[in-house]
Amino acid sequence: MAKLSLLVLTSASLMIKQYAEQYRKGDLDMTLTELEPDLSLPRIKTYDFIIVGAGTSGCLLAGRLSQYFRVLLLETGGNPPPTVNTFLWSNQFSTDTLINYHFQSKQKHYSLKTGGMLNISQGKMMGGSGSHNKNYYNRGSPYDYDQFASITQDPSWSYLNVIQHFKRFESFNGILLNENQRGYGYDIFSIIFVGFYGTSGPISVTTSSGPTLEMWLAAGRELGFQAADPNAFQIEAFSPMALSTKNSARSSSYTGFIQGVEKTRRNLRVLRYSQVQKVLINGNKIAYGVTYLRHGIPQIDHASREVIISAGAILSPVMLMQSGIGPAKLLNSANIPIVQDLPGVGQNLLDHADVLLKFEIQNPSAAQALYPILSETALQDELVKFQAPLKTGAFSGENVHQAFIVSSRAKRENEGNWPDYHLYFQLDLPTGLETNTTNINMRVEFGRPKSRGCIILNTEAYAAGELDDEKLVTFDLGTFTDPTDIDVLLEGIRLIFSISKTTAFQALDLSRHSVAFVRYLYNGKKDDPLAVVDPELKVLGVSRLRVVDASVLPTSTNANTNAPTLLVAEKAACQILRDYLDPNSDPNLCPLDNPAYFTPFNN
Fold first, then answer.
1. What is the rounded distance in angstroms from the CA atom of residue 54 to the CA atom of residue 56?
2. Which residue, of 60, 146, 543, 555, has the fewest CB within 10 Å?
3. Per the domain annotation, does 598 fall within a domain?
């Protein structure tokens, strides 16, 4: 069993590398053939919009805007390897250097066993981190978005207003504990009739309902917590896990918005292995294009309407700095001409740090009942089932659940209805282990930390001509710079131990055998005096330039950031289409909701 398990995971890693290299070589051959007539001189093309980064935000934006305008989408990486079970290959996806960035952060109060050094992984491929993560799909709390509206003084960011954007890109077909919320229901803030879930969008959303769900919900009830659905209107509760998957495969902004239309939509041009160097900005502070290296070959293209930076929480601030937008002192030290002095670029970095506790199931019969594949023959049978066109069996789903909890700190601050930390439960598949054991992982993650960090351009490396993005980034996550975050984390750890001792879990006979520190990255920017973008995500002081990704959110949501990042892009797409198609239209009307309202040209 152990040998076969190791073979499965080793084969997965080799296949990822082979696919990545195959895609790169094929794209290089195509690029050299295309550029050969240019005699190594850039041939400038003009598009309506240039989007820098084809991650979660960039793919959605490109898909939406190219229905109406000419769009160039630039991505440093290539295609993700074929979409597979998110649980089985997630580790290989997130660690492979060919399809991921790997940044390092030096900490003062965290991960001291390793000298404070943390490795941060970010997807470098079409779909970005949405193509390598576990595809947990959580909108966050309604209070998160109402806080965004308060900070920006723009009511369009309130939860009741952003629900329309979530629904537009969702196709929800999962289970619900409260079936009354599937279509319509009364919201918790006012007596109005609203729909909660989208049913026809490009992003498929389902839920995990494995054999451990009832055990998890029962443990929560035993400890005094409700059982409730995670989205619609998040409350303090134990919940199923929502997943952006379809037929056990990832459903990402790449698969939903680009993959199916790229070859047929004439308005859309996607260039992979294209690393943007800077945004071109003229003397009147108007962005008009970008310079980039396509397989190392210098290129220039222009945008007649806007340049949109969607390079992610780490690289978007760095891209602004490289383009002369950021703290004046830092730009001067790198000999970068100052276009706009914005001291807030790279500030207000938030980290979803967490602690992972592993438990081993000591009761073999209980483990066998949860996952009846603890033999080499059974494992082979399950792999065959998963490889079939209609994926079935143990590998086709995930036994993963969650809970949203309000800490004592939040209650003291009159936020008793606003969860601020997040628990995860996951039943490990018995693969990749040297012994036939089944583990349960439980994790506590900060939802709304008070600690803040920052991202800085490595000025010495930049001035020396360094081109590698990983070497141009210096940042500090700032974890535990606010000591009360430690209290919240410890409170969550104590709750995990209480869960492991509930009656619901007694039959498993759990024993804890390891603890690990993990972290999730998140970035945001507050209002004055560190404002970088306005509520419409336009960069302050520079025309025709926006930033559209997780880096623009002023605070973190109490959950995974993929769904909020999709929301940012969807909301921005509607705003941009209104700006250029009919600036005088109703601000609540999105062209995407009424295809007859505007007629896309030459599509």
1. 7
2. 543
3. no
Of the candidates 500, 245, 598, the one whose C-alpha atom is nearest the C-alpha of residue 398 is: 245
pLDDT (tens digit per residue) in 111-129: 666 676 777 888 899 999 8
Token pair of 29, please? Answer: 């051959």
Say how many CA atoms lie within 13 Å of 483 toward its Cβ: 0
Structural domain count, the chain: 1
- What letter does residue 96 receive in the DSSP assignment? -
Rounded to whole angstroms, how far apart are CA atoms 233 and 181?
10
Nearest C-alpha neighbor of 253 from the set 584, 562, 578: 562
What is the value of pTM for the model shown? 0.91
In a domain? residue 177: yes
Instruction: Supply φ then ψ for residue 210, to 5 degrees.
Output: -65, 180
Range of the domain at 446: 2-593
Indicate the SS3 state at residue 118. Answer: strand
> Looking up tokens 């002192």, which residue turns up?
329
Check whether 365 is labelled as a binding-site residue: no
Q: Does residue 600 fall inside a structural domain? A: no
Lowest mean pLDDT segment, chosen from 35-39, 179-183, 312-316, 384-388: 384-388
Residue 56 counted as an annotated binding residue: yes
Tokens (6 digits) for 168: 């537009």
- 431 among annotated binding-site residues: no
Residue type, 290: V
Tens of pLDDT, residues 66-102:
999 999 999 999 998 875 555 555 555 666 778 888 8
For residue 132, the one-letter residue type is: H
Per-residue DSSP letters for 403-447?
A: EEE--HHHHHTT-TTS--EEEEEEEPPS-S-SSS--EEEEEEEES
Residue 149, CB half-sphere, CA atoms under 13 Å: how many?
Answer: 13
At position 603, the amino acid (one-letter code) is N
Q: Residue 601 falls within a domain, yes or no?
A: no
In order, the DSSP letters of 31-65 are HHHHHGGGTTS---EEEEEEEE--SHHHHHHHHHH
